[in-house]
Amino acid sequence: MTSLSLKNVSKSYGAVEVLRDIDLEIEEGELIVFVGPSGCGKSTLLRMIAGLETITSGDLEIDGAVVNDYPPAQRGIAMVFQSYALYPHMTVYDNMAFALKLAGKPKDEIERAVRDAAATLQLDHLLDRLPKALSGGQRQRVAIGRAIVRDPKVFLFDEPLSNLDAALRVATRIEIAQLKESMPGSTMIYVTHDQVEAMTLASRIVVLHGGNVEQFGPPLELYERPANTFVAQFIGSPAMNLIDATVASAGQVTTVTMADGGHADAPIGSSESDIGSAIKLGVRPEDLSVTDSDDYLVKATVEIVEALGETTVVYFKSQNGRDPMIAKLPGIHKIERGSELRLIASPEKLHLFDESGRSFLYR
Amino acid sequence: MSRMSIKREWVHGWLLLLPAMVFLFAFTHIPAVTTLINSFFSTPRGRRSAEFIGLENYQEMLTDDVFWKVLWNNLWYAIGTIPLSIALAIAMALWVNDKLAGRSFVRMAYFTPTVLPLIAVANIWMFFYTPSFGLFDQITGFLFGWPASNYLGNPETALNAIIVVTVWKEAGFFMIFYLAALQAIPVSLKEAAQIEGAGRWTVFWRITFPLLMPTTLFVGVNAVINSFRLVDHIFILTDGGPDNASALLLFYIYEVAFRFWETAYAATLTVALLVLLSLLAIGQFFFFDRKVHYK
Ligand SMILES: Nc1ncnc2c1ncn2[C@@H]1O[C@H](COP(=O)(O)OP(=O)(O)OP(=O)(O)O)[C@@H](O)[C@H]1O
Ligand SMILES: [Mg+2]
């Protein structure tokens, strides 16, 4: 069942258009993550769903009803802010009870809802404290508890973990994943620019860039079948290598050649008209391996070697001013700086993008 | 550390404190103590020097009708000016804190009365209040056909007329503090409350107002002190009259000291004023302490 849908939603501040024709269908029970570089409009989109920003054009539907003109409180959403936004003069209990009190719920019902949420989030012993007497992680949990007690149709999270330290981020991320599991019926939308959060939490990811949706799909689909060079390089770390190539032969399998004599047969369909066109061959650093044979993909000169134990990351000299290539080889390798390596990758790990950056898979 | 260097540091410290202490003692502590001492003596007249008379001045004060009258006036003045100027200050701050066209102009307009000296303010209002020709009479006469009225000359209205001037003068000043406090409240709190179903009114009473409490405490203490301290405009507007209807405690102290030259009695009244102010300030801190949340 569709829980939330955006139809041609756009947002402008004066003459500046920050979001353009966003179309998304979100099913009930999904955890959707919005990712994208800073300033791409993630927060703006989330705040439009919350009702904190007006929608310039297009329709926002929640549970089948167009809610463009509904005030935030009537949309059946709850939001967890990056800054937590706890009321500093109220105790944890009062913070969590605030919405229910405003809704005029009976006292015992409020008490039960707050205690239940507090138990789930291990906040029982903190109910009488003021927010200033809590740690960052505890504040975050109170903010989440405040959302839970209202039993909303849709939860909205705006970078909820960005104020926590690395260890706490991981712990809280896992808690959020467990929380989601314990509430299978609730829909969540989660904004982050941390791709690990995106990959681990999401049922589907929306990649935003420059006010457009670049791709919308499950995490592994974005990783394995990126729709364009932006997604290819945004998802995965280190980013996917893009190598200049020319289409040599087309068909079910596309053969491409590189300027340095390398070549590859990618099991990706192409048409006769592609032959001779300049394209980008994409290959992830972790899919590359070293070879001795003449049958290589690319060869490149080693610039820096980072031996991390579990992996060895090799940075190659950049050729004709392009981004330097990176290879991530499992285990320990003895590699000399300045040596020339020949690299290959298995054909099914290759990606092809046309001049405009679009993947051959999505043409 | 040797004895010598400890002593050196000690001397150093006192030397650094000295300039400020000299002034503080010369202009604050010594006069205050002298005032207290004077209040136990009679006023020296001609060749008769001051004599110790114990609490006689205080007894005189308690039986002085004018003292009770001005104290009562001061109470009304405080009740009339403090809540009203604070409420106005908050309302104006909320209003100019919103996004509105030309808000820096409005802010400046509200703040103008504050930068004007009280004497100048009094002269402006003198014109507003002038019977027949004044702004108020012109307006009420034109709109409702009311006869000319002498707001400042009527014992019924004189004090209220002064209260209006004071509120006008003070609200803009307090607004600045509230404006600063409002800007320190994160917008996300308001947004969170909005999402949780709070309307504008609820957001104000349940979120904004409690968070403004530290400012209200500060402004409140200042307003109380000001209600006993600011009397300049009375000299211009009513000179305490008619029949002491608009005289306040400090104004009365001035009269006693520099018009009647009863300096000892003036010292006694001053001690009473100081005690009263200290009690009020302390009481206010204790009262608010439980209600104020510093972040
Ligand atoms: N009130 C505003 N007026 C004009 N432009 C705005 C306003 N609010 C946001 N923008 C612009 O809209 C764009 C999107 O902002 P938004 O806050 O949604 O980015 P974001 O993706 O959340 O970034 P971040 O990851 O840094 O939080 C930005 O370019 C920003 O400059
Ligand atoms: Mg943001």
How does this structure look, described?
The complex is a heterodimer of chains A (363) and B (295). In chain A, a hairpin with a 2-residue loop joins strand 1 (2-13) and strand 2 (16-27). In chain A, the strands form four sheets. Chain A has a six-stranded mixed beta sheet with strand order 6-7-8-3-9-10, sandwiched between helices. In chain A, strands 13-12-11-14-20 form a five-stranded antiparallel beta sheet. In chain A, strands 15-19-16-17-18 form a five-stranded antiparallel beta sheet, with no helix packed on it. Chain A folds into two domains: 4-233, 3-Layer(aba) Sandwich (Rossmann fold); 234-362, OB fold (Dihydrolipoamide Acetyltransferase, E2P), CATH 2.40.50. Chain A has eight helices and 20 strands. With 363 residues, chain A is α+β, with helices and mostly antiparallel strands. Chain B is mainly α and 295 residues long. Chain B has a single domain, classed as MetI-like fold, CATH 1.10.3720.10. Helix content of chain B is 75%, strand content 0%. In chain B, helix 3 (65-97) runs parallel beside helix 7 and helix 3 (65-97) runs antiparallel to helix 10. The two termini of chain B are 41 Å apart. Bound molecules: adenosine-5'-triphosphate and magnesium ion. Residues 13, 16, 18, 36, 38-44, 193 of chain A line the site of adenosine-5'-triphosphate (ATP). Chain B: It comes from Roseibium denhamense. Chain B: The chain crosses the membrane at residues 75-96, 108-128, 158-182, 203-225, 264-288. Chain B: InterPro entries: ABC_transporter_permease (IPR051393), MetI-like (IPR000515), MetI-like_sf (IPR035906).
